[in-house]
Write the structure tokens for this entry.
Amino acid sequence: MSEKVLMKGNEALAEAAIIAGCRHYFAYPITPQNEIPAYMALRMPMVEGTFLQAESEIASINMVYGASAAGARVMTSSSSPGISLKQEGISYLAGAELPAVIVNMMRGGPGLGNIAGSQADYFQATKGGGHGDYHIIVLAPGNVQELADLTIRAFDLADEYRIPVMILGDGFLGQMSEPLVLPKPTGKKFDKSSWALSGAKGRDHHIVYSLRLTPEHALEELNIRLQERYAAISEKEILFDTYRADDAEFLLVAFGTSSRLCRNAVNILRKEGIKAGLFRPITLWPFPYDELEKAAEKVRMVLSVEMNAGQMIEDIRLALGKDKDIQSYGKMGGVVPEVDEIVEKVRSYGTR
Amino acid sequence: MAQDNAKLVYDRPEALVDRAHHYCPGCGHGIIHKLLAEIIDDAGIRENTIIVAPVGCSVLAYFYLNVDGCEAAHGRAPAVATGIKRVHGNSKHVLVYQGDGDLLAIGTAETIHAANRGENLTIIFVNNAIYGMTGGQMAPTSLAEQKTKTSPYGRKVADFGQPIRACEMINTLEAPVFIERCAVNSVKNILKTKKALKKAVKNQVEGRGYSFVEILSMCPTGWGIKPVDALKWVEDAMIPYYPLGNFRDR
Ligand SMILES: Cc1ncc(C[n+]2csc(CCOP(=O)(O)OP(=O)(O)O)c2C)c(N)n1
């Protein structure tokens, strides 16, 4: 089973969802993630699952809501404009404490933008996205293997915390082919019998809702419960990676596709004797504030490399405060940062 | 003793929760909830039924019906119901309860596509020609020249179009098996409504497919008239534009 296969990111993700036990998938086509619905349309009938091409992203996220309320493992996928349409539904999932996995293979924006990979939805994904005081868990894979592995994890996290989990990739990651070992199911079981809708047989009726108007269904109470859950997630579920960061004087911070370029830049800089390293958040929410602070303790400069105008840099500043020299290098509109330019940014700083 | 021989001839249906509801005097939602509860009891499906409540006055329907319940975002009840149904298949019966703003304005796409897919659902469409919950604004079903909060000079067809006839629109699609328009403004009409709802539920239980029941209903508060006058307004103003009757029964 641990044989390597060559797969596109989007297809590896879809297969991993099936391995994780996802049997319900609802979505609406949009580039650059169309390989996911195509794969699901082919694969779901083989495992007696449901593939449904919905009439819109709004419909598909609400189908996800219904399937989740019924107790199923369920996923939807889209790209930036479609994810914007799903935001009301994601807020309802959060309010009704329903698990779900949502994939955003980001593309350039704003507006219709373009179909190149981008990281411009960082704010939307990590700071709420829809209305109300809520968070979703945001996972940012850096390669196809990790994309598949994190998909498995996403389903477990969603069920464990009854929370929507977003896999935040981008068009490049979704469409690149890499060898991977398909992950195994974790086998974790989650008991949903206390809340899922399965018919009120021999028990009180279950209601899945987020409207809270009365003292016995106080909205503040739900919010407090959610915040406690978010605190527990922040405590236990942080994921990050470092590369040659132990003795670094220059620390690049990047996630997803831009982190791959940063690895190359670190290698080039190291050859020149410049002590560069990389810190790569894998959970973007919860963000690894403390871990980054520790990694950056001794560095002279931190460079945030993003495929956007500089969004994650706000979290980096929160982690490191005003005393650290934090620089930004971002490329917008679906343009990829150049390794040479990353190298030059650090090199010129180092010899300053 | 007379009491010993007393026979219970009328009781609260098991599927109806024993609690006061929040509906205004003269509102039709309470009547329709009661009919549904009786039908659920008669069919013996209380333990296998899930109601999807819309955003609108009837959002709290899940507190009144003693079955599993699910709230849906405004307009999305058919999509939510599709999700539930695709998980449980025909082992659970999903009733979709929607108002006219929900079903014909914000949720038109979900309405059409669930119908077109022939989802095995029972749609209960309560047409009160107004947005009740938000305080009486114009609905897609508000009649021409009808005065509402957002049509203070009357609904101008030139600006807002003619009111939409849902049954006729659904009736252009191939998949639905049952389409009927009823009303709850008189005993006679209520009994007909019950019969149509019963058939629409039976169709789902038997796995026959999508059933759509439109119910013309009163909203005296939203219309700004007395409850008795509201019954008459349904008869004199609504029914001529929205003819009652069966459109399809396969
Ligand atoms: C996305 C969104 N838009 C608007 C609203 C406000 N809203 C709540 S109910 C409603 C209209 C309800 O009218 P209808 O569907 O006719 O049902 P009724 O209350 O008359 O039974 C509106 C506009 C909302 N809750 N969500």
